[in-house]
Design brief:
The structure holds two protein chains of two kinds. By secondary structure, chain A is mainly alpha-helical. Chain A has five helices and two strands; from the N terminus they run H-H-H-H-E-E-H. Helix content of chain A is about 80%, strand content about 5%. Chain B starts with 13 loop residues before the first helix and ends in a 10-residue tail after the last helix. The relative contact order of chain B is 0.19. The chains are: A mainly alpha, B mainly alpha. Chains A and B meet through helix 1, helix 2, helix 3, strand 2 and helix 5 of A and helix 2, helix 5, helix 9, helix 10 and helix 12 of B. Chain A: InterPro entries: DUF485.
């Protein structure tokens, strides 16, 4: 167990042409899929949060409106922030498992297989 | 009303409090000893051999994140200033979406031990590492100060120790214990302490929440009515009690909100936790677990805060030893007498201990890995030397934390932590985001953004009412509060983003495009990511 632990400290980098991978259509699809989800979703969440903070700061009358008994708009909107955070988390995990992970795994396995093949042809001395 | 009038007398039984806390220390010590037997390499010491599962790490993140600020500070803030205290909770929680969507997985795929690993990946190693290590140490220091300030207040309330010397002794004992945990246990020991603490804290808060609701007929509305009745002020249900008094206060509120939501994904001790799991997928799972645990906990604190306002009253809380920070322990005493107070007090101490341990190992890793091994030894330290340096740094930081804790005053800890968030969001977040997502980003941009963000945040704090000019300032006698904002976020965060952009576009040199390709491919696919250590 000691040797493995030591070798883990100095992982030999894979010999990969990352530029070629980056240009490949598969990777471009993964990059696009990732960005076209995280940027707009995060932007929307931050805008929603900012709207809440601005309301709490500048719309006291609206936030003080009682809705159920003494529970007012401010409480409900605060709890709504919690609910949307949970919902977006669940949504992202679902999306990542279904759309991102298969693409990422495919590219990773291809790279690792190529690197292994290259090191075999280059000989054990490399 | 209970007899809290005599300052610095504990409402409970100090010996009972000490006994319960002692039991917690004994149990966690045994676990830390057992967990630390495999601590050999830097991977073991800093990243717990990357062997924790997503669920375990999620609990540890919750344990790390739900600091004394969240528990004592937010419950106290809601109890005393009403709804405005709840804003902290919302900001602290929504912030996790930044970590989940932008940072956690990409960081896990490209780094090894510290934040600087990622920031310096495709930029010039030496200057970027030094800058990242500097911001890491400063953020950890601010955060440490907040935790130790909480410890001081707790001591006076729980152990009935009023004099400064006695409190100092207790803070020294707590700090000494923390050093021991981190020295022996490394990241593995620290993680287990955090997991146990998260379980106890959330369970304790859940019990108290159900109890408070039961007293109020399981109606949140009735609880709010009772809180208003005891406080004699219906405004505690509305935003603006603390932050609505003037236009500057409103701007301050906005500034605070910005710092909270953007700070989390830039906190070095949170980022470092993502390296303790074997893969990016587990890092994602950790964040999901953390978000659920943290979110549920913050809903509890809303009930507990108004519960404390209803059962004890804001004035009695503000007058108690420890001030607003004592709301949660006082509520525990009101509900379950000395035994529940002892349990909650032990949990609160455990909270401080676990968070301080997490901060200390982060700061030590940053110094030993980024400054010593990567810069001083140019990436080739002698075998075992890096961990040795890390252990020595732990002792030094522990001593600084103890001194800071003794010197720290009775400020609300949630407020102090918010300053740490502002510094993190200003100094770290722009560079993290740019280096992960902006191809053109250069070393100059990173340095301008990190040093500019750090300096502007700290200068703004130094010139704010936090430090001087008001009776509650750190230096009440002096008066150099030129900046009226007590949280610098609204100025320093946009400024740091701007400086990162400006430094890059003015930079004629470009970074190695091959490194950029490698970082982008690795961050999204996990090729060549650090694997778990097999024992």
């Amino acid at each position: 167990m000691g040797n493995e632990a030591l070798s883990a400290e100095t992982t030999t980098p894979l010999d990969v042409d990352y530029r070629a991978v980056q240009q490949s259509p598969e990777f471009q699809t993964l990059r696009r899929t990732h960005r076209s989800f995280v940027f707009p979703v995060l932007g929307a969440c931050l805008a929603w949060y900012l709207a809440y903070v601005l309301l709490a700061s500048y719309a006291h009358d609206f936030m003080s409106t009682p809705v159920f008994g003494s529970i007012n708009m401010a409480m409900l909107l605060g709890l709504a922030q919690v609910v949307t955070t949970f919902a977006v988390t669940t949504w992202y995990v679902h999306f990542a498992n279904r759309r991102l992970d298969p693409l990422a795994t495919e590219i990773r396995e291809e790279i690792e297989a190529d690197a292994a093949a290259a090191s075999v042809t280059a000989g054990v001395t490399r | 009303m209970r007899p809290f009038e005599a300052a610095a007398t504990s409402p409970g039984d100090p010996w009972l409090n000490i006994a319960i806390f002692g039991a917690f220390v004994a149990i966690t010590m045994i676990i830390v000893f057992r967990a630390s037997r495999n601590n050999k390499t830097a991977s073991d010491y800093y990243a717990a051999g990357r062997s924790f599962t997503g669920g375990q790490n999620g609990a540890a993140i919750a344990g790390d994140y739900l600091s004394a600020a969240s528990f004592l500070g937010i419950v106290g803030a809601i109890a005393v200033t009403g709804y405005d205290g709840f804003l902290y909770s919302i900001g602290f929680l929504v912030a996790w979406l930044v970590a989940l969507l932008l940072v956690a997985e990409l960081l896990r795929n490209t780094g090894r031990f510290t934040m600087a690993d990622v920031l310096s990946f495709r930029l010039k190693q030496k200057p970027v590492r030094i800058a990242a290590a500097t911001t890491t140490l400063v953020v950890c220091f601010f955060y440490l100060l907040a935790q130790m300030a909480g410890a001081g207040g707790l001591v006076s309330l729980l152990l009935g120790i009023g004099d400064k010397v006695g409190q100092g002794v207790v803070i020294t004992v707590v700090g000494g214990l923390m050093i021991l945990y981190v020295l022996i246990g490394g990241m593995k020991g620290t993680t287990w302490v955090q997991i146990i603490k998260a379980g106890l804290l959330i369970a304790g808060a859940a019990v108290m929440t159900v109890w408070v609701l039961a007293i109020n007929g399981f109606s949140f509305s009735t609880l709010l009515d009772n809180a208003v009745a005891t406080a004699g002020n219906p405004a505690i249900l509305d935003p603006g009690l603390k932050y609505g008094v003037s236009e500057i206060a409103k701007l301050d509120f906005l500034s605070l909100g910005l710092a909270l939501v953007l700070g989390t994904a830039a906190l070095p001790h949170v980022l470092m936790r993502f390296y303790t799991v074997p893969s990016a997928k587990e890092a994602r799972k950790s964040v999901v677990w953390a978000i659920w645990l943290i979110g549920i906990f913050y809903v509890f604190t809303l009930v507990l805060g108004y519960g404390a306002a209803a059962l004890i009253g804001p004035e009695a809380i503000a007058a108690a030893p420890g001030g607003a920070n004592s709301a949660a322990p006082l509520l525990a005493f009101e509900l379950g007498g000395p035994i529940l107070l002892g349990l909650i007090a032990a949990i609160a101490f455990a909270t401080i201990l676990a968070v301080v341990a997490g901060l200390t190992i982060t700061a030590a890793a940053s110094f030993a890995h980024d400054i010593y091994a990567s810069v001083v030894k140019k990436g080739r330290p002698e075998a075992g030397a890096e961990v040795k340096v890390a252990r020595r740094t732990v002792v030094v930081i522990g001593i600084i934390a103890i001194i800071g804790g003794i010197g720290a005053n009775g400020q609300n800890v949630a407020f102090l932590v918010a300053l740490a968030f502002a510094v993190a969001a200003s100094a770290n977040l722009p560079t993290i985001v740019y280096s992960l997502f902006w191809k053109r980003f250069t070393t100059r941009g990173a340095l301008w953004s990190m040093y500019g963000g750090l300096a502007s945040a700290i200068i703004l704090i130094a010139l704010s009412p936090v430090v001087s000019g008001t009776p509650t300032s750190m230096i009440p006698g002096a008066d150099f509060d030129i900046v009226p904002l007590s949280n610098p976020g609204i100025i320093s965060i946009p400024l740091a983003f701007f400086l990162g952009w400006l430094g890059t576009v003015l930079d004629k040199s470009t970074e190695d495009p091959a490194k950029q390709s490698e970082m982008e491919v690795r961050s999204l696919t996990g090729v060549g990511a650090e694997k778990a250590v097999q024992h």
